[in-house]
Automatic annotation (TrEMBL):
<dbReference type="GO" id="GO:0005829">
    <property type="term" value="C:cytosol"/>
</dbReference>
<dbReference type="InterPro" id="IPR004375">
    <property type="entry name" value="NanQ/TabA/YiaL"/>
</dbReference>
<protein>
    <recommendedName>
        <fullName>YhcH/YjgK/YiaL family protein</fullName>
    </recommendedName>
</protein>
<dbReference type="Pfam" id="PF04074">
    <property type="entry name" value="DUF386"/>
</dbReference>
<dbReference type="InterPro" id="IPR037012">
    <property type="entry name" value="NanQ/TabA/YiaL_sf"/>
</dbReference>
Length: 159
C-alpha cells in the first residue's frame, strides 16, 4: 500500500492502530534537523530509522524482505524508485535470513515493479513484499534522499 502523508483520516479508515501511530509520528516530525539513527515510538514494537543517503543504480541495490516487522518507508526529502515483487518460490536468496537484523537479501525481484517515492510519500511493506529500496530514478543521476523507515512489529498489525 502506498500513500501521501497528508491524506485525511477518512482515507485511512481500515488502517491498524499501529499503522496510524506510525503515520502520526511521520506527520509530526521535522526530519531536516533530526539526527540519523533510531527514534523510539513505542519501544521495540514501533520505532523509526532515519537515514540520509545517495540513491544508487538498480544493479547496486539488493532486494530484501523482513519476517518480524512491517516497513513504512517514507521519503522525507528527495525521490527514489522502490522495486517490488510478491514473495515467491522463484526468488533466489543471496544469503541466509539474519534473525538479529530481521533481513534476508535476494538476487533479483521476479517479476519486478517499481514505485516512485517522492518527498511526502510512503509505502507499507509486509513480509510478503520483497523490495529494493534506494534506487536512483535515473541511473546516471544519483540523488540525495532523507528517508525514515518505521518498523512495526508484525503482531501489532494483526486483528
Amino acid at each position: 500500500m502506498t500513500g501521501i502523508i497528508g491524506v485525511s483520516k477518512d482515507e485511512q479508515k481500515g488502517y491498524s492502530a499501529a499503522l496510524m501511530k506510525a503515520l502520526a509520528f511521520l506527520r509530526a516530525q521535522d526530519f531536516r534537523n533530526m539526527p540519523e539513527g533510531r527514534h523510539e515510538i513505542d519501544g521495540d514494537k514501533i520505532f523509526a530509522l532515519l537515514s540520509r543517503y545517495t540513491t544508487r543504480p538498480q544493479a547496486e541495490c539488493a532486494p530484501e524482505a523482513h519476517r518480524k516487522f512491517v516497513d513504512v518507508q517514507y521519503v522525507a526529502d528527495g525521490e527514489e524508485f522502490l522495486g517490488w515483487c510478491p514473495m515467491s518460490p522463484d526468488l533466489v536468496e543471496m544469503e541466509p535470513y539474519d534473525e538479529a537484523r530481521d533481513i534476508i537479501f535476494y538476487r533479483a525481484l521476479i517479476p519486478e515493479s517499481s514505485i516512485l517515492l517522492k518527498a511526502g510519500s510512503y509505502a507499507v511493506l509486509y513480509p510478503e513484499d520483497v523490495h529494493r529500496p534506494g534506487v536512483s530514478v535515473l541511473d546516471e543521476y544519483p540523488a540525495d534522499v532523507t528517508k525514515v523507515v518505521v518498523k512495526i512489529d508484525l503482531e501489532l498489525m494483526k486483528g
